[in-house]
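Notes from hallway chat w/ T.B., transcribed later so I don't forget. T.B. wanted the structure written out for a chain they're using in a teaching module, and asked if we could keep both sequence and structure tokens in one place. Agreed to drop them here.
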Amino acid sequence: MMKRTIFSLFTMLLSQIVISQNAATEMFQLASPKMIVSAVFFDSFTTLEITKDLPNSVIKYSLDGSGVNQDSKVYNEPLRIDKSVVIKAVMYHPDYLESDEVQLEVVKIAKKSAIKSLVLNQQPSEKYSGLGAAGLMDLKKGSAQFGGDKQWLGYQTDSVSAMLQLERNSEVSQVVLSALTNQSNWIFAPGRIEVFYDGKLIGTETYSKSEIEASNGATFLTVPVMKGTYNTLNVVIYPLSGIPEWHQGKGTTPWLFIDEIIIQ
């Protein structure tokens, strides 16, 4: 009788351990997959690779900016991308919680920048001066690790104006600004961009999402303009007037980081 009781207690204890281990496993969240592209800016195509480091895990993705779910496409091999897209990906595993969604945007451009020269109305912070105006027209992307990256120009101001001299008879339908979002370091995407030709406003866009809490990464902001042929453009970038209320730096002047202006 004593042996049977001890055996029953041992069995119950073992079951509780297994249940606890299973519960702990179910609560463990997967790390997000890593997305690597051969080029963020490309004129023909770029190659996307998504990596995982856990056996039996599955990566699902979208290329149209829509959220990823269980019905999304399964990633099996590197993808050839030949147009501007927003890529999103999530990692799944039968024994763990799915990862957070990660996002990466790639932009198709002309073989050569339409911008011949660029003049800024004010210089960036000495700490984040990058390559100056030249860095905004070299079609090279800054990294998420902005400290020491020469592609980024950092500002704390109410506006930044860039006067662009374009190649002769450049047809323009939109202007794209590449900015950085890193809210933990008080870096926010701009709230509005205006585009002028010969003093006339030909395009403007407001970005309300810049005030919303967001993950770190590149932010591409598009401004549709009155389609036409231009030789000069003036692009005026307006940072948020203040850091939003939900942030610990609320009310203070946010940082604006930019690394490229693209004519399309």
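Follow-up for T.B.: The CA atoms of residues 144 and 261 lie 17 Å apart. Might be a good example for the class.
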